[in-house]
Write a structure and sequence with these properties.
Length: 701
């Protein structure tokens, strides 16, 4: 393969941009309505993956669906509750409080332009939320018309297939032995959803992953995964919400349970509070994340009561006892969350564990005060017996785990207090407390303190923390956004934490810190540019070549990014990014990384065809200095690859719309320099390139 040369690459990027502008700027108006996930959430996803030891720890399909849902079903802000606004994940608590105060004092908005009169709403905020909101009235739910709502409304059907074109090791027959994977390389996805405004939805999702058997002797049912939901809101004055089938639950600040996206460290530095609706329908393909059963919320103003129950089979790494006859499951050592059932071993772990979840929430809200009481119980039909290691000494083991918590919120003028205190049934405590302050029209400040004991246990907790496990952490976060003028602002945060006990990949108590600054220049609807610096220092294990014993040392990671997004025409946007990464580890060599890409995004309402494309060059010393970059993809599909070693990556997304029919296609390819194989195990490819194609049809009726 010919070598890569950076000057030639830069020339190619410039040439692509020039030719696209030259030959497409003659045309067409108005953007495609299906835009991408907001930039600050892309940043947070990239940050989470950079800090993670495993990309399998995260699934963001549910997050993408939430935003794309509001693109096609905008939120009616004149009737939106605080929870509805929180569920948008586009406003911080200060902005939500200002909006609700404005609406309470002056009544319903008559025009979107009225948002400019709200103190904390600048033009950038308004443009960020504009695709997801509306002020048009919709029909109020009438329980007597429920049967009509089941057949009226909007229906969407998605059919998708994708595959890697190169043959992977798991599909090869070696020495007349059958392939490791029992199915073919194709991925299939079917999704149907009926939606009647904000009040009723029902539908199902079917999926087969690559390598999984499909309509054969091993799997005669075809699709390996399926879900179904029926979800009703505003049923009557007392019954506010009913969920049947697959659904998700969010409680308080996430200390005992929180599903989907929540506040965390990102360029939206004051978005640190968990929030949103307690119950939501679940339509994603993360097979381990949903609750399956029934749930309901009763509204007894100013009190609401939510109860939920779930019972489902989950994948688990089971330990079998065959000493006294036929094999029987004795316990399990871990829950499998990949959702993959390609091999004999993976199929043996499929749906091996029965998991029951029951819980309730009592919520009081009146004016500026909100208090919630939450209770949760998890029960398994077999004991959960993890492999005992020093770092996981305090992790949950057993068949049943109960949690209880109290969460609160209080607003006083420009001060917004929130938090949660939780306990597990072993008596350990976890707590988080936050404060959001609008110091002026130009300065917002966020503070958050958390303290989770090493012995604290919660299986579905996702609070604001540094670690992936919700225990063994103390920390304090400070973030601020300073608006110099309408076109220029500064976002900064600092986070300091400690771990009183050992953790994965750190065989001693440790601490860490993280600093972030972003300088943003914004020109209304035409240009956005930012310079971002992020540095992190945390303690991890390392080994010397002398004694091969784990020692604790600091890993310092620094990322510098420059990003430019320019609307060169009504229908054409160019995006450029340059990013550098540097990782220093005590006892090891320095590792450096570099990435540059050019995006071209073309959307028009006058033509049925739109496209997005990217050319990316990357060069890192090794995996430790990897760089993540969010990619545009087809609807309801995610792509956030890790870039390491040296190579080129490019993709092209095409979308053709004709009335109620949309056809989408994607081709992506990564070419590595000086590599003879890609990946390992069953995913290994002989060669230096990996190509994937996707095709999706969408019918709306």
């Amino acid at each position: 393969m010919p070598g890569f040369h950076l000057p030639h690459l830069l020339l190619s990027l410039a040439l692509i941009g020039y030719l696209t502008v030259r030959f497409t700027c003659t045309a067409f108006s108005q953007e495609d309505s299906l835009s991408q996930i907001p930039g600050y959430i892309q940043d947070q996803i990239e940050t989470l993956l950079s800090d993670s030891e495993s990309e399998a720890d995260f699934d963001f399909n549910d997050l993408g669906e939430a935003f794309r849902y509001h693109l096609t079903h905008p939120l009616h802000i004149n009737r939106a509750s605080e929870g509805d606004l929180e569920a948008l994940n586009l406003l911080n608590d200060i902005q939500i409080a200002d909006f609700l105060h404005y609406r309470d004092e002056l009544g319903a908005l008559e025009s979107i332009q009225e948002l400019q009169a709200i103190p904390s709403f600048d033009l950038n905020t308004i443009e960020r939320i504009l695709p997801f909101i509306t002020i048009e009235d919709d029909r109020i739910f009438d329980g007597r018309s429920f049967s009509k709502m089941l057949i009226r409304g909007r229906n969407e059907l998605y059919l998708r297939s994708s595959r890697v074109l190169e043959q992977q090791q798991g599909y090869r027959s070696i020495d007349n032995q059958p392939p490791k994977y029992l199915g073919n390389q194709n991925q299939y996805y079917v999704r149907f959803k009926h939606q009647f405004e904000q009040n009723l939805s029902y539908g199902f999702t079917l999926e087969k992953d690559p390598g999984e058997p499909f309509f054969n002797d091993v799997n005669k049912n075809g699709f390996d995964y399926s879900n179904f939901h029926l979800f009703v809101r505003n049923l009557n004055q007392v019954v506010h919400t009913v969920a049947i089938g697959d659904y998700s639950v969010s409680l308080g600040q996430g200390l005992i349970m929180h599903s989907g996206y929540g506040g965390g460290k990102s360029s939206f530095v004051t978005k640190i509070k968990r929030g949103g609706r307690t119950l939501r329908p679940y339509t994603s393909v993360n097979e381990a994340a949903a609750l399956r059963g029934v749930a309901t919320t009763f509204n007894l103003n100013p009190i609401s009561i939510t109860v939920f129950a779930s019972r489902r089979k989950q994948d688990g790494n089971v330990l079998v006892d065959s000493s006294d006859g036929p094999e029987s499951i004795q316990s399990f050592s871990s829950l499998q969350i990949s959702g993959l059932h390609r091999t004999t071993n993976e199929i043996e772990d499929k749906r091996a564990i029965q998991h029951q979840v029951i819980g309730t929430r009592l919520h009081f809200k009146k004016r500026s005060v909100a208090i919630g009481l939450n209770a949760l119980n998890n029960h398994f039909d077999q004991p959960f017996e993890r492999n005992l290691l020093p770092y996981n000494r305090f992790y949950f083991r057993g068949s049943s785990l109960s949690n209880a918590s109290l969460d609160y919120g209080y607003r006083f003028r420009n001060f917004n207090f929130f938090g949660e205190i939780a306990a597990s049934d072993n008596g350990a405590i976890g707590q988080t407390h936050g404060l959001l302050m609008g110091l002026s029209r130009y300065v917002d400040l966020a503070l958050l303190y958390r303290n989770l004991a090493p012995r604290y246990q919660a299986l579905q907790a996702t609070p604001f923390i540094e670690s992936s496990q919700a225990n063994n952490e103390k920390g304090i976060y400070v973030g601020s956004e300073i608006k110099i003028n309408p076109s220029f602002w500064i976002s900064v945060y600092a986070d300091y934490w400690s771990h009183p006990w050992l953790r994965f990949n750190a065989d001693a108590p440790s601490n860490g810190k993280e600093h972030f600054i972003r300088l943003t220049y914004y020109k209304k609807r035409r240009l956005e540019a930012y310079l971002q610096i992020r540095s992190e220092s945390k303690a991890i294990n390392f080994r010397t070549d002398v004694d091969h014993v784990n020692r604790i040392g600091l890993r310092d990671r620094k990322n510098i990014r420059f990003h430019l997004s320019q609307k060169v025409h009504q229908n054409l946007e160019l995006r450029n990014r340059i990013e550098f990464s540097k990782v220093d580890l005590a006892g090891g060599p320095e590792s450096n990384g570099f990435l540059i890409y050019q995006d071209i995004i073309y959307k028009s309402i006058k033509l049925p065809l739109s496209f997005t494309t990217r050319l990316c060059y990357f060069d890192t010393d090794d995996y430790s200095s990897r760089i993540y970059a969010y990619e545009n993809d087809i609807l309801y599909s995610f792509s956030i690859p890790a870039f390491f070693n040296e190579g080129l990556r490019y993709y092209l997304n095409l979308r053709y719309r004709f009335r109620n029919f949309t056809l989408e296609a994607r081709m992506e390819q990564t070419r590595y320099r000086n590599q003879e194989t890609i990946s390992s195990g069953g995913e290994e490819i002989t060669g230096n390139k990996r190509t994937r194609i996707k095709l999706q049809c969408r019918f709306a009726f």
